[in-house]
Amino acid sequence: MRKVMVAMLLGLILTGSAMAQMKSLTIIAPAAPGGGWDQTARMMQQALQQGGIASPVKVMNVPGAGGTIGLAQFVSNDKAKPDVLMAMGLIMVGAVLTNKSPVTLAQITPIARLTGEYEVLVVPAASPYKTLADFMKAWKENPGMAIAGGSAGGTDHMLAGLLAKASGVDVNKVNYVPHSGGGESIASLIGNQVAAGINGLGELVPFIKSGKLRALAISSDKRLAGMDIPTFTEQSVNLTLANWRGVVAPPGISVPQKAALVAMVDKMHQSQQWKDILKKNDWIDLYQSGAPFDAYLKDEDKRATEVLRSIGLVK
To answer: Phi-psi category of 301—alpha, beta or left, where left has phi over 0 and alpha has psi -120 to 50?
Structure first.
């Protein structure tokens, strides 16, 4: 018992020492400004600084290839740095597979899963498709209609493939137009360059509320409070999917340094600032940190591989 107490005390001392050494924090957003990872990084920046948990906190965007360009730079340039984090999520799990990235998530240090978010199928305000049934009828007649979304192999792409499969549209004929982030995808929708688009709810809410985009369906299992968006399932399409986002540290940091980062993010999750951010952005609280998130990340790699194989994106 005494040995356990001594070990715990030593761990707390080392963790506290690691936190004390952190003079500043950088959060990498591996996407262009305006998308979900950028929002996650900037909301973390806000909560950490306003909660007095870490300061200063800097956000740096490294867009491209579903986050795998940022991932590669993160693993090589930030190795062993205990003051750098990177936002990531299910999209990156899929992008690593579809882009055949030489750098994988097995090389990073898991810290925490933060949020979940449902996906929404939208069309431009001037679109002739008023309902999901309208869109599905036209899509079956013309499977090559352009559908915008985030990176190839990401959650948006997964939903497009699963929707096609559930609706009898040939998945091999789906014309999915990937973008490096939600900001660019939404711009193509508002510019009427594509017939429809799929993005996370938080990214789309301002444009749905302003009338620039029309929401046809959401991937939740039931309607969300305050959101007049019908689910896929209530429109006879058996489809639900939740995207998740988290944060990781570079490879090569010490055990106390990892514990310090987990403790810092734990504290942020408990703060009122973070609770307010979750509510404001309609993000689902899926918080999980430490060893459970380590195991979850490995399981997600297996699950994403199975989904991408089922829709023909991974052989």
So the answer is: alpha
